[in-house]
Amino acid sequence: xxxxxxxxxxxxxxxxxxxxxxxxxxxxxxxxxxxxxxxxxxxxxxxxxxxxxxxxxxxxxxxxxxxxxxxxxxxxxxxxxxxxxxxxxxxxxxxxxxxxxxxxxxxxxxxxxxxxxxxxxxxxxxxxxxxxxxxxxxxxxxxxxxxxxxxxxxxxxxxxxxxxxxxxxxxxxxxxxxxxxxxxxxxxxxxxxxxxxxxxxxxxxxxxxxxxxxxxxxxxxxxxxxxxxxxxxxxxxxxxxxxxxxxxxxxxxxxxxxxxxxxxxxxxxxxxxxxxxxxxxxxxxxxxxxxxxxxxxxxxxxxxxxxxxxxxxxxxxxxxxxxxxxxxxxxxxxxxxxxxxxxxxxxxxxxxxxxxxxxxxxxxxxxxxxxxxxxxxxxxxxxxxxxxxxxxxxxxxxxxxxxxxxxxxxxxxxxxxxxxxxxxxxxxxxxxxxxxxxxxxxxxxxxxxxxxxxxxxxxxxxxxxxxxxxxxxxxxxxxxxxxxxxxxxxxxxxxxxxxxxxxxxxxxxxxxxxxxxxxxxxxxxxxxxxxxxxxxxxxxxxxxxxxxxxxxxxxxxxxxxxxxxxxxxxxxxxxxxxxxxxxxxxxxxxxxxxxxxxxx
Amino acid sequence: xxxxxxxxxxxxxxxxxxxxxxxxxxxxxxxxxxxxxxxxxxxxxxxxxxxxxxxxxxxxxxxxxxxxxxxxxxxxxxxxxxxxxxxxxxxxxxxxxxxxxxxxxxxxxxxxxxxxxxxxxxxxxxxxxxxxxxxxxxxxxxxxxxxxxxxxxxxxxxxxxxxxxxxxxxxxxxxxxxxxxxxxxxxxxxxxxxxxxxxxxxxxxxxxxxxxxxxxxxxxxxxxxxxxxxxxxxxxxxxxxxxxxxxxxxxxxxxxxxxxxxxxxxxxxxxxxxxxxxxxxxxxxxxxxxxxxxxxxxxxxxxxxxxxxxxxxxxxxxxxxxxxxxxxxxxxxxxxxxxxxxxxxxxxxxxxxx
Lengths: 600, 354
Prior knowledge:
A: 3 strands; elongated; B: four-stranded antiparallel beta sheet; 0% helix
């Protein structure tokens, strides 16, 4: 329900964003006689990934990022046992991170003061617990690839961990005696016995139990008798103890323990299916978790991933699990129709979700880096859209782009920042950003701004910047001109007139000064021409005159074409005449000075 | 994340809140240097905008600089373990003033405290001098810089030193009226932005700065306008530099490249080979040839100002075992050092000099 929108009389339109949806009110068919009603003027942002904002889950994202990056760096050359051991370790690391979050969330759930949030946290705890359960099973079946003997052991541990855990979390006393029985039976020092030896041993024991039952040894005590039946793997006897078995997989493992302890992996799914059916007994239908586990027992990895994607609210789980399984070389390169494989697809989705967050986007970068097909493109698109609230954030983004030679993005981000700076009248910052991007065009823009300010105010602003341009001056011609022009003023202030004069002239003759500025430069030359001593030599004066002529010729031509206002003409003409006069006088003095014996 | 230490507690920010933690007793260290007792979150409080800088004003008060241009003093109440806002200067930094219709706030990038005074600088190139319990700024220098001011530190008490994004250090004297700096120092060549600055705890003329290219520079503000030494350090922006408050021959830097370095200039071992021969240590010395050094008659010549590369043996150690995301902030007190990273992790070491 979107507040403020009258869904009966109006329609809504929406558009997908990277992590959210924009919704607003609209009207698709405009009827001519439609009344003009005041509609809802707001645009709503609908976000799905509330998980991203949960404080505790952030730890999951951060820590798993570290594990993910470490996994990508595992040597490709290492094969066989050492590689498998490494992969198992990575899997256990992921699981321990999930457990840590679960623990913390559980603490918060207990401490929660209002029941609603308490329940929310508790449901998060059970989701995390389910995730760990599934991951653990996948680890046993797909990564550890436990062979026939130890398979049951692993499954026992798995069930024990989760049964105990769930019971502890719901503060019930663990009543099941069954787990304890296993210890004695599976006392295998050094595990030197082969599978067949084990099978034989077990067969003997089983037969003995059977004999006891048939002889009626326990007839006097119904409890002992049912215990014996249980130990023989009698399904109905087991099902009688249903309350102690919290779920069907607990039932499954118990069954296997007492009837088929040397079960092989390929046989698992038979028992799994029957256990599920027997346990549920037609009372209820399987839940999503049950389907996921069943798919795992059937060794259908793709089905597991598919079901998890549907059941879980964010991509974290499937992305990381799929990536790990991919490293175990278990996924067939299942090319999805838009070109990337499943692992990459999931990682891209997960990382895109991270980019919706104001600081977790940094984790997303590493994920994109490890998606060979589309990662780069995704990164390029996402990184340009991160809001640049502070310079520090912008610097981090730029550093990421520079490291990956994303020059287009660097230039565009620097341009945005430089433009912002110019709008805020922070010309020094603007220049700093143009230098970083090596953006000559923008540097020219900034210089023009300075020059404009000078023309308007008659003095330079931000002298600390212009005076200390250093090597940056070379970035653009306009910037060089600005620096040199300022230097001219400095020289004039220091009364080094000869140097100032030659600098001024060179600014025009070297074409570094923009034409539009020449008039200002020539006007600046006036006080030098009017000095008592002759500053400009004859040669220099000729050049100045040439410049003036170039300028005025251009002017007359344009005047003929356009037809100017009279006032402008007057001021311009006066200026030009003054200059001509000053130049002529100076020329005269210079010739005389150079002509005499002392002056040469 | 931002960190600052004051005795046993430390501050951190996460998800735009300021948090106060207790990292246990200094006295109880187990045999392997591990901690007795874990860190514990004492209290936290929401903060508007990103926390750009954080510092303890005194035992109970913390000053935070925000990306919204706001400067806030938080007060810690030890009885009920809460934090509350004690004073706030909203709009301390802005591009266009609140009077104008197109009001734009600017992030406050750095603060330095000397109770009861607080000096703040921001992206608007403005310097503010606040005093606790005074509603308005005691002194404001508008447009002190045409670029962003990244950090500020006190030199002698009425003087402060700022660094900006065009590679300049400027010294300001609050005793003087007017809006011009009393001195400007800069690197020649590229205008590399400077991000952090710290003053030597005992020698008020020695200052260290860190730049966008990861370069560490040591300056003597009394002489010349150039740095005394330039040390190539990190591969990316150096976010913070700190002299150890009681052991100033030790310097710490942290960077965007995910490393935290400990610079030890105290070693006097003659057999140690000079830095140029040490493999794996990424540092070159470009000493500024200054003959003025010989004329200094002080008995305590800072080891940081020594310009002879052969004698200069700075031992550099990287303190973080694995590469992490950017290390944004660090602080050091006694034998305890901590730092915060972009992976929302805080690393603490309490056996710094073992």
